[in-house]
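Case study 2.
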Amino acid sequence: MATVLKSKGLNGLKNRLNGPLAMITKARGQFSFILPPNLTIGFLGKEVILPCQLTTETISESISIDIHWIFEKSSEKINVKSYGGKNKEDMQDGRYQDRADLFYNELNRGNMSLKLKNSQISDQGKYTCMVSLGDWFDELDVELNLTANGAEPAIALELYKGQGIGLTCSSSGWYPKPQVLWLDSKGKPQTEKAEATNIQQEPGGTFNVFYPSTSPWLPPFIIILLLSLCLTIFLVYKLIQSYQTVSQSVEKKNAIKAEQEHLNHAIDIGRTTSQTAVADLQKRSARLTEELDFRRAQCLAASVILDPDCKHPEVTISESNRIAQLKPPTAGQPVTAPFVMGKEGYAAGKHYWEVKVGDRLDWELGVLTQASRDKAKKEMSVDSLGEEFWTLRSCRGDLFSGKDKINKIEVSYSVIGIFLDQQDARTISFYNALLMFHMCSIPIQSEEKLFPFFSFGKAAEDKDQSPLEIIPVSVTVHSNNFQ
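Prediction:
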C-alpha cells in the first residue's frame, strides 16, 4: 500500500470534518509536502510517528495554521487530533486522549507530523493529514502498519522420534501472524507437515507459535561416535589376542607390533572424524547465531533521510533525500572528505539503516553528536571533529574502526548495515548487509542526540564515483529468522 499525495480543495476538507470553515482558495506552489516512505511501520505498544512534513523551512507567524489528522476506520472518520492555532483549544476523539500529539515547537518549520503513543492493533489503517496555511490547503495520506517481535524462540528436547530426536519450538507475542520454518544442517528448509504448526491468537491480537520437528543432524553424529567406539573395542580385542601368543615366535611379535600400529592409526582416524563433525556443527551454529543477530537489528529499521541543509558544497542530494552524489571533479581540486548528515537525530532506542556504497574504495559511515554536526556544518569540514564521532571507514579498500584496522575477507561490501543501540548495549554496530555478518561494534559514551553521518572519504583519489544511497529496508517478520 503506497503513500499518496492528493489535493482535494476546501470542499473535501469540509466534508471530511463535517464542520464549518471559512472560504479558502488553494494557492498552487506556495507550499508542498515531502513524500514520506510508502509505508509507515511501528511496533505494538511503542511510540510511532506518522510523517507530514512541508518542504518549507520557515512559516511566517502571521500565517494562520490549521491542522487536522483524520483516521478512516470502516465507514467512520475519527478526529485523532485537530489544531486551530495557539488561541484555540485542540480537539480530538476520546479514544486518542493522551495518546496523540503534535510537534508544536516545530510547526513553524513545516513539521505537521503526528506522534502516536502506546500503539494498538486497532490503530492500523489510513490516516489523513490536512493542513491549511492562510489561503493554501492540501492533504497527505499516510498508511500505518504495526508489527510485534515476539519472545525469543525456546527450543526444547523431547524423546526420540523415528530416526531423529524430537524438538519443539515455541514463542509468543508476534504480529502479524508469523510463518514457521526449520532449517536442516545444510541451511536448507526442512519439509514439515503444515498441520503440525499450532498458531493461536491472543486476546490482545498477537500470536503464539508452537512447532514440533525432528533434528536431522544429531543421529548421524551419534552413529559416527558409536562406529568409532565399536572399531576401537574390536581392535583392542585383537591386540590382546595377539599378545597371548607373543612367546611363540618372533614373527608373531612383529605381527603384534604391526597390528598395534594399525590400531593407533584407526583410533586417530576415529578421533579426527568426531572432532571434525563437532567443529562443523559449532561453525554452523555460530553462523546461524550471527544471522539471527543481524535480522533482529534489521527488524528495527528507521526511516533515515539526508539533510539538504547540512552537507558539503560538492555534494548534491536527490529529490527523495536518499541519494548523495558528488559533483564532477575539477582540475587541481584538493583532496577533501565531502560529507552529508541525516536530517533526524536519535536520543534513545534502537535504530537500523542500510547504505549502498557500491564499489567505492573510500567512504565513512556512522553517527556524531549535535555539537559535532553543528561544527562540521559551520566549517564545511570533518577533519577537526573531536571524539564524539563514531564511524566505520574504508580507506583504499581497507576497513578501520577508529584507528584499529579490521580484518577483511574477500567478499562484496557494497551494502553496509548500521545498527544504533542507545537502549541496552549503547553501541553502534556495522554489518555486511548482503551476506548478513557482523563486522564490528563501537562503544558510545554519550547521552546526546546522535545524527547519521555519511562521507565520501578521499573522494578525489577514488576512481569509482558511485553515489551513497540509503536503501529502504523491507521488514518481513518470519520465525525462520530465529533458527
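The first strand starts at residue 5 and ends at 6.
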